[in-house]
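Shape is hard to put into words, and the shape of a protein is harder than most. The fold becomes a row of whole numbers, each drawn from a learned catalogue of backbone shapes. The outcome of that step, for a single protein, is printed below.
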Amino acid sequence: MGASVTNDERRWLLERVDDAAVVQLYADGFERLALRERTLLWHLCQAALAGRDVYLDQRYRHSLELRDLIEEVLVALRCVGPRWEEAAAELEAEGVAKATVAEVRRYAKLCWLHSGPHHHLTSRKFVLGCRREAFEELVRLAEARGAQLPKCEEETTAALLERLAPVLFDPDHDPLCTCKTPEPGRDLLAASSNHHYRGVTMKDLAGFKERYGLNSRLIKHADGRLEEEVYRAGFDGLVPPGRCARQLAEVVRHLEAAIPFSTPPMASSLRALIHWLRTGEEAAFREYCVAWVADQDSPVDTIQGFVETYMDARGVKGSWESLVYFDDPDKMHQIRQFATHAQWFEDRMPYADAYKKPVVKGISAKAIQVVLETGDSGPITPIGINLPNPQDLRERYGSKSVSLGNVVEAYEKASPAASRREFCFDDAEFERAKKWKPLCDALTTNMHEVIGHASGRSAEHLFGDPADHIKEYYSSLEEARADLVALSFIGDLKLVELGLVEDAGLVERTEYEGYTRAALTQLNRVKVGTHLEEDHMRNRQMVVRWLMANTRAIEVRRRDGKTYWCVVDPKAWRQGARDLLCEVQRIKSEGDYAAARRLFEEHGIAFEPELRDEIVARFKMLDLPAYTGFVQPRLRATRGADGAIADVAIEYPCDLERQMLEWSGRLARVADCF
């Protein structure tokens, strides 16, 4: 087994790429797992890597081409690894400026972090910052040295570069991956550049019934006919292969290999997942969700498939994601307390009894150690997850929540205290944050997932899933609802009774201050434009701005030309959060699209560019990152003479570039550069 690495020896922050922090993720406890469990994790990780390109293709139609182009150029010219500057210096003799190579490397790292050329959080496209002519010369030089460029059939190098030039250099060409608030008169599907649709507008969908809403790409043919291209591997000649069949067949192969090493409940879940990936049928997806929720005790687990709908402007199409993880017993107590007492919290929700679950079913919760995240969940990762998403399945069968313990730890280890101090109004607020913020973050995340997403029910007269009614505002609304549940209970004495906090009032105030600051500081991520597109950012702004407009809980103060959002009345903050939760739950339970739209258009989408510019300047002055991407652990299998896996060790690459080239299969060509 691989040697363990102590916290004192660890490298956390590996590098900065623009305003992104690149951080190594560690998975403590892997070495203590039985060989059977480590082998299971290895097979699941192989499946996760096999599905990675599905997400890249969904994110943008040129993402795979761009990756192959940029990686081939860097690899052919050997401008990778710690000694890339030596290779770049040699190229200068051929007229290639070192600055051009450095810029291509920067662009490559951003594309790796964001799975394409659009920002994961803001949705806006970033571009190459060098001259087009300089880049094209670099490409030609790389091709002369063996680069395999991603040309279409019979396409010349000149034609390839001409075709991709707007993608690489024009910020106004396909500017947004997802646009949920298009300019007046523009269609939200036409304004979005992701690959969920081709040539389709919202008007085209009138009267069209989707059979494969979650796991298909919808295209419009020249004759106006709509076709669903289903993501599926195919099945025994009875179900034809669909979109990304090759990648999905490889995912299935590795999942099948994992079954002999899994527990019986997990094996049932994996078989159901395989059936869905082969057939693409909604009934198979629902069977998988039920089987996955029923498996509450397996120490190793995975989430793989078309899951979250954030990237679709309509909130219908699922993005591919994969998580592979194992239980973290040391961090399990807190999150399991919320699962155990979920009925207590449900009974005391502030909203109408008609929207509460009379009997809470099947809620389970775990703290986990993530081994690998790809697709929509990595390298930029959530810190908590609650699934499945369909409301009727939650109500009938329950849900599973996981808190990504090692992700939370990595964030904390790599985060500079300077950002917190900069936006705290006084020393007292800063000292509270320094002492209590990690506990507050854990409590809020766990309540958000376990008693937030898992709470509530639809009105009896509502037909279908609330998401079908609330449409493009549903994801933002649901994230706000889960947040508001956590914020409503963060200061409750029940948490003291459960032994989770000692001073509920102090924890409550600290969380309200941190949440309010976050709604302000998140503007640092949106350096262009005047609107938020990402659902979690919309949610956070909506909650805080609604409180500012409807309560006296928050005061805007200015000092030395700086803006602070200060919590001046925690009791009013809490009551406001409960009042807002009542309305948000009503909107969801009733499927009230008009009210959801009004709520976010008034409070959650637009922001003042002058305020954003101030926040950006303050971050820049302190040279602080705006977000984090992670380098994942690597599992290495050793096989015995019989070909069976004899051992699985865990390693930590501590190098984004090395990991990405390994995942795409190009590392072997330049292994001596690292």
Summary: DSSP finds 25 helices and 15 strands in the chain. The two ends are 23 Å apart (CA to CA). The mean pLDDT is 95.
